Amino acid sequence: MRIDIVTIFPEFFDVLEVSLLGRARSKGLLDVRVHDLRQWTHDRHRTVDDTPYGGGAGMVMKPEPWGEALDEIVADAGSRPLIVFPSPAGEVFTQPLARRFSRTDHIVFGCGRYEGIDERVFDYAAALGDVRLVSLGDYVLNGGEVAVMAMVEAAGRLVPGVVGNPDSLVEESHEDGLLEYPSYTKPASWRDRPVPPVLLSGDHGAVDAWRREQQLERTRARRPDLLAADDSPAL
Ligand code: 6GU
C-alpha cells in the first residue's frame, strides 16, 4: 500500500519511523512518502497561503502549489488514488472507513492549515482521484497533520502483516460495533480488587456470555449512539 502525505510540516510525520508502522515500512508493507508542500512553490518566500476573497479572519491555502503537488504525485503513481483531505467539515472517520482505507492501493492525504484550502482544489482533485473530506470528530485541530497520523495508524494496522497476531484485530472496540469487554491479568486479587470469578472458572461458554454482556452494558452506558445505529449488533 502506498501513502503520500502532503503537508507544510513534514517533521510531524517523523514518528511514523517508530513502533508498529515503522516496522511495517521497513518490511515493505507500507510505502509512506511525506512531501513538503512548499517544494511546489516558486517565489522566494515559498508562499502557500493568502487572504480570503470576501474578507474574514485568517488565511487560505493557495490552489497553485496543491495543483502541482497532486499532478506530480498522481503522475508518478500512474493510477487513480483515493485523495483524502482531513477537515472538521468532512464525514467522520470510523472503523469501517479505516478498513476501506486499508484495502486501497494508493492514498494521497492533503493536510490543510490556516482556515482551509481554496475550495477549487477539491474540485480539481476529483479529476485525478476519488476525493473524500474526512474528520476525526466534532472538535477543531490546528491542521490536518494529527488527523492524518490517526488515519494512517488506524488503516495501516489493518493491512495484512502489519499486526503480528491478526486475532488481536477482531476482538477490539468498534470491530463488531460494540465497545470492547474489560481485560484482566494476574494477580487474581490486587489491592482488594478481585478479578471477576467467571474468568477463573474455565467455562469458556460462560466467559463468552459474560464478555458479550459486558460489551453491551458498557456500550449502553458510554456510547448509546452505537446501539441506536441502523446496523447495531444489538438489534
Ligand atoms: Cl480532520 N482537521 C482539523 N483541522 N480539525 C479536526 C479534524 C480534522 N477532525 C477533527 N477536528
UniProtKB/TrEMBL annotation:
Keyword tRNA processing: yes
Enzyme class: transferase
Location in or out of the cell: Cytoplasm
UniProt keyword Iron-sulfur, yes or no: no
EC numbers for this chain: 2.1.1.228
Biological function: Specifically methylates guanosine-37 in various tRNAs.
Family affiliation: Belongs to the RNA methyltransferase TrmD family.
PANTHER family attached to this UniProt entry: TRNA (GUANINE-N(1)-)-METHYLTRANSFERASE
Protein name per Swiss-Prot or TrEMBL: tRNA (guanine-N(1)-)-methyltransferase
Organism: Microbacterium kribbense
Originating gene: trmD
